[in-house]
Structures are given as C-alpha cells and as structure tokens.
User: Fold this.
Amino acid sequence: MSKILIIGAGRSSSSLIDYFLSNAKTYAWHITIADANKKVVESKITNYKEVASAVEFDVNNVSLREELIKQADFVVSMLPAFMHGDVARDCVRLGKHIATASYVSQDMKDLDAEAKQKNLLLLNECGLDPGIDHASAMKVIHEIQDKGGKITSFKSFCGGLVAPESNDNPWGYKFSWNPRNVILAGQGTAQFIEEGKLKFIPYNRIYTQIETIEVDGYGKFDAYANRDSIGYKEPYGLNDANTMLRGTLRMPGYCKAWNVFVKLGLTDDTYKIKNANTLTYTDLLEAFLPKGSASVKDKLVNFMGVDIDAEVMSKLEFLELFSNRPIKLKEGSPAELLQNLLEEKWLLKTGDKDMIVMQHQFEYNLNGANKKLESSLVVIGDDEVHTAMAKTVGLPLAISIKNFLTGKFKLYGIQIPTVKEIYEPMLSELEGLNIIFTEKEV
Amino acid sequence: MSKILIIGAGRSSSSLIDYFLSNAKTYAWHITIADANKKVVESKITNYKEVASAVEFDVNNVSLREELIKQADFVVSMLPAFMHGDVARDCVRLGKHIATASYVSQDMKDLDAEAKQKNLLLLNECGLDPGIDHASAMKVIHEIQDKGGKITSFKSFCGGLVAPESNDNPWGYKFSWNPRNVILAGQGTAQFIEEGKLKFIPYNRIYTQIETIEVDGYGKFDAYANRDSIGYKEPYGLNDANTMLRGTLRMPGYCKAWNVFVKLGLTDDTYKIKNANTLTYTDLLEAFLPKGSASVKDKLVNFMGVDIDAEVMSKLEFLELFSNRPIKLKEGSPAELLQNLLEEKWLLKTGDKDMIVMQHQFEYNLNGANKKLESSLVVIGDDEVHTAMAKTVGLPLAISIKNFLTGKFKLYGIQIPTVKEIYEPMLSELEGLNIIFTEKEV
Assistant:
C-alpha cells in the first residue's frame, strides 16, 4: 500500500485528483488531499471515502506540513511554483519522493545529490508545458536519431486556448489557467537559435516578431518566442541543431492587439497606482498616451499608427476601454488593474470548453535527404472545470507517479520526462485517454 | 572636537573629502576615511596628517564597521546606496548621526522613530540630484508662496554631461559617475502629472517622448522623464500643481541614438550571455535583429525605419558596432557588455572637463497674472578628477554636515534639504564656491 499526499487542489489539479481516486483501489493507494479549502476537497472525494481523506492545509503551518509529509510515501506538490522548495526540503529530509509539474528550480538542484543518495525521486516538469512537450518531442527525436537521422532544426509551440465552439469573443481567448501568468507572459527576453545564430527578442517587441503556424483542422495560430530555448539544446540532445525555438500560441490577431498593452505600458507590474478606483479604464489608457485634446480613442489610434487596425480596435472595445468603465481595485499595478478587467471579460463560462494546441516541427537529414516532420496535438476540454488544461497538466504527472510506484521506472534525484523509461509509458497511456499526437511528413 | 567618519572614497567623494580636510583645523574635526583602497586615501591626506587618518575598509567586516562607527560622532556613507542600511543601523544603535547623498530608503524609514527619539540626524538626498535640486527648487517655491503666488506647474531637469570644450565625441557624453547607472537609466516606468492628468511612460518609449529645454549660453538639451515625479508633490508642498515633472538631460540627439539600444534590447540586465568573448559587438547587434542576408548595418537601418538617421548612425559607428570589434568579457548581460565598450569610448580623459546642468521651470499665478520663471545652474569641472559631479554631489553634503555640527540647524530623524534651515545656508555657501543659480522671468 502506498500513501500519496497531494498538496493543492486548485484549478489545475482536478484531472490529477480524479486519476488518483479512480485508480486507488486497483493499486492499493491511500490519497490524502491537503488544501486551504477543505470543503472543496470533501466534495471531490464523496464517492471515495475508503481510499481518500481531506485535510485543511495552511501553507504557513510548518509542523502540519511536516506531519503530513511524514505520513506519506509520495508527495505531489500542486502549489504555486515558488512554494515547492519548502515541501521538497521536507520530503528529502524525511525520505519521501516528490513530483511537480513545474520547471526544475534551484531548490530542487540543491536537493539532487541527497535525493540520489537516499534513492528518492524528484520528478519535475511533468505537466503539459513543461511535460508533454518534453515527452512527445523526445519520442520523435529518439526515433529520428535511432534511424541515423540528424536533426537540424527544432521548433516547438504550445498554447492554452479556447475551443472553436466556445470562441465567442474577439480575442479568441479565455483563462484556463493562472490569469496573472497570461498578463505577464513574455516579460524578459526570449533567447533562441535561428539558422546557426544566437537571437534575442526583448519584451518590447516579442508580440510583433511573430510567426504563423498551422494545425490541420484547426487553422492558423500566432506564435511568439518563449523564454530561453537555448537551454533545451543539451537536455534534448540537439547540440548540432541550427535552429532551436520554443514558442507560445495564440489565436491569429491576439498578438497584434496585446502589443498595444505592451507598447502603452499597461502590463507593467513594478509599481502600484494608488486610488485606482477613482479612475476609469479610459483614464488609465489616457495616462499612457501623450497629451492632447482629441478623444482617448483618437489619441490611441494616432499613437499606435500602423500598429493598430479595425480588428485590434474591436478587441479593445470589447474590453470597454473607451467606455469610462470604473476600475474596481483600490490599488494595483497596471498589470493587476488589467487582469481584474480581463478576469471578467475572459471568464470560462459554464459549459465553455478550452483547448490545448501543441506542435513540434522537426527538420532533419536522413541518408542525405532533407526531411520535415510535424507532430501536433489538440485536446479539447469537457467543460469549464474538466478543462483540457487540467487534463494535460495533471494526467502526465499522475501517470508517471503511478509508473514509478509500480516499478515501471527506477530513477532517482531530479528527473524530467526526456528519458524513454518515463516518456514511453506516459505517452502510451495518454493515447488511451485521447491525448494523441498526429505526425505528418511535410 | 568632532570625529567624522567617511566610508567610501570613490569617484564622487573627492570634493567632499577636500572640504572636510581643508576645514578640519578651523572646526576642530578629526576625519577618518575608510575605503577598500587605503593607498588612495593615504595619498589624499598627505598634507593633513594631524587631522586625518586612513583605514583599510572591507564592507563585509562587520566588527570593523562597528568599531569605526563607535569611535565617530558623525558618519558619512559614500558607499553604493544599497549598502547604507547596515551602516545606518549601526549608527542609530550606537547613537551616531549619519548622512548620505542617496534617496531615503526603506531602511532609513525603519530607523526614523528611534533616531528622532535619540536626537540623531539621518540626513539624506543631500547631493546633487537628489540634493541641490531640492534645495534650489524649494528656495524659489517658498519665495513665490511667501509673496502669495500659487504654483501651477513645476518641471525640473538635471544632467551630468561633458563640458563643451571637452565634447569631442558624437554622443556628447562621457562618464562622470557610475557607468552602470547610465546604461540602466530610465528602466521602470516614469510617472508624472501633466495638465492635471496622471501620466506614465514605460521604458520602451522613454527615450522617444522627449522634450527640448534651453539654457542661456549653453544651447539646447534633450530631456526625458525621470522615475516617479508624483511623489515630490507633497514634500515640495505643490499639491495644487497641475504639472509636476522631473527629467534627465542629455545632449541633443543622444536620446534618439540611445533608443536604438532600448529597442534592440541591448540594455537588458536580466540574463547573461555565456562565452561572450567568442562574439564581436557586430555579432551581438545581429543577435537582436531579425534574420536576413543583408549586412548587419543594413538590417539595423531596415529594422529601425524612421527611428534612425545619419546622426544616429555616426554615433553607432563611433562605437565600432559594425567593425567586428571583439567583446572582451567572458560572460555578461547585454547591458554589461555594452557598458564594457562604453567605458572605453566614453572615458573622461586627462584634462577633460565634465558639466552639470540643472534647470527648474515654474509657472505660477500671482495677483491674477500668470508668470513663468526659470532657475538654471551650470557647473563645469576642473579636470577629470575634480569633476563638477564630485563637487555638486559632495559639497552640499559636507556643507550641511558642517552646518549641523556648528548648530546652524537642529533637526533629527530623516531630513532632506527641502527645509529652509538646511537649504538656505547650504545654497548661500555653494554660491561662494561658484555653484550659482541664475533666475529668469520668461
């Protein structure tokens, strides 16, 4: 019998929790779910009383955290990424395995040696992106390399979007995950390699230097470069690739409109505007525009010049930016004030379905011939709770933990799903759950 | 007898040290100068052996710091701003006064109550900008208000530049203070009030939304908005002003050229480029440009469009950006790599003179009439060591400490030179040292 502790039962945890609950009897698991909101957890486990229990959890209660971890065999942290460190340190000290869907942090690196020595697993980057992207890319990369092919170019794109049937706003976007991350997306400088050359795109033009990708049956998408792609060369074994780019997908036209906010400065999160609730969103917009007697709308059009068009304007009008809509927050950064508006405008409503789109593009040389291969994934959510996002973040994690607990792989210390032992059984079970990549020679 | 401890004898400290040394006998002071480089200090005090001593100082040596502070009556911290906190905490604990030329920090605010209770002075913002700007602005503001005038608009500009006789590069700029601050200048969002409205300018367009100011005898200057001007309304007693703007001055054309670096992303300090010394500055430039087969110069011209012209190009060519000049640093952020180049190109050479320019612009209503007043200051340095920057940063601080020690003002806790008791004797002594504002009704 294995005792699994899940910390955090928020938006992204629903499919993960369902998977553990429905498989608990089969594998002799006991599932403890700890969350700040015990009632929500209790409603989720009503039908699983003999295999699951709910615990009210306060992240600041160190002794409770320690007590819960002590009683578990395997800990899954679904907390915000910056909170994994404390949980992981307790786990390694107390001799427990831990898994997260987040990027490998410095905290994890600091624990790696001790975890290896104690035969403890520190599974990370095992959600969607990072997670399924690693697994599905590595599968193709290994297949090409096993045939003797040499990969010259690798591009990989992913986006958490809204399904066509629920796409009823001009942005083609609704929140299926942490809204704050969407508002701040792209901040910093994107780094990648293109045709053998180092490339940097700073935030101020990340939404203007976009490319278009196409997924059969789903049409075209905007793609903008995402963070540091160069760091993936080595873990992916692509040291010879001339092009290495990871990007984020949005519906066509989204980037041009979002760039208005970037250029204005409306996504800045570094200072607070006081007494914001004495202003309207039109005042806020005007505060970022040069002075003048024209209407705010006309000033914006003048200011943006060629960077604005009727489609962009309809997106901005949908947000009531020119309608003197009052700001509700008493104080907030421009980014926070914008988020507060978008959380209402981009809400995933009852019955709405979200959509995950991922596409890898490989160029490789095999026996002297240059070839192109595309591997694409589209997942549509069931509804606004059982989202494609929750499935694709939670299931690879849950499946991999099961595979570890049932001895399908025996690896310790920091692991991410770039190795065959982890990604092969993960991808094959995901296929059974209708999370299926389609490959296409171009 | 007063014992004065000066911590930090760098570039900006020369005039401050000279002032203390030459006045030491008159006022019965003993001056201890603590710096990482004891030899430099020893050379400065050769002629002042009976009133001064040099100490080798390691910022990390907590017990030495405490020992030195214990022996002093008044401590002057000329360390980088982020280091003042430790010094100030020691001072307040040990019952010593402290002065800095830096902005009032949270550390200082935290010490304010205890300092007031112990009758200890925490003098801050007592250099050039902040410092002389506060003093000279408040003098005019108080004069106008004393006559019954109401100030409707206040703009204040300051720049550390190169004197016309030493202006021999196309940028019209050489480093007279911390180069890193020049490279990172403007990052964040400028906040000000213009014609009664809140205004924000983010970094991505701070160097494009400039205004031109003119100083009699010295011609025109570019001015870009500087940090948070709104926070000055209250301390300046200008709650009714419709316009409140502080700005930074550069020679005409500087901003248009610097904006190339901002738009490219070359001033980013948030990530390191590894093996940078395998690249040239032309490679670095290319990494920020879209791909293409044209020369780097042609790609840049295409990329910048209307934002580039022959004058900008001559500035970039002066920096050898198109000449495959090797990068020397093994690793660095884009900002650090750029700084490394500029430190050579913008060096204040032997005999070079720097120049400080400051201008306040007041609009006010007096007896029903609208009036305009300009108050301007130009200070030229003696040479590359006795710079206008060192004089205008160090002298107001030294003078105010003397005025405090001689009982000219008796104020405790956090003080900045916005109050008459501090600014009046400071400005009057500065006039005797040829740091003189010229007022002009416009």
